[in-house]
Design a protein that fits this description.
- With about 110 residues, the chain is mostly beta strands.
- It is about 0% helix and about 55% strand.
- A hairpin with an 8-residue loop joins β1 and β2.
- The protein is globular and about 50 Å long.
- The N and C termini lie far apart (about 35 Å).
Length: about 110
Amino acid sequence: MSLLMVCGFVAVAEGCYVSLMKPNATAKTYYCLCSTALHCARDVSFPGKIHIYSPSNDVILPDNTVGFLVVKAYFPPGIPGEKVLLEVSHLMPMPGDPASETYEHAI
C-alpha cells in the first residue's frame, strides 16, 4: 500500500456515520464516510472513500458538497479495482446549497 499527502478540492456523496470501538478502549470513535473520486493529471481518476473523524452529533455533508481537503491518501495494491482511502486531517466545505444551480459558480 502506498501513502501520500494530498490536498485539493473534491465533491462528496453518500455520507453516513459509523462508530468504531477499539479493543480495550473505553469510548467509541465516530467518523463520517463519504464517497468521492480523485481526478489527476492526464485524465486519470480513482474512486475514493473519505474518512472524516468527527463527533457523533455532527452534521453529514449533503451530496455534491465541494470541499478543500488535506488528506493522507492510502493507495491499495488493487488499484483501480479498490477505492483509495482518504483520511482527512483538514476539511473546509464550500458555503452554499449544493442542490442550487449556482453552487459551483462561486467555487
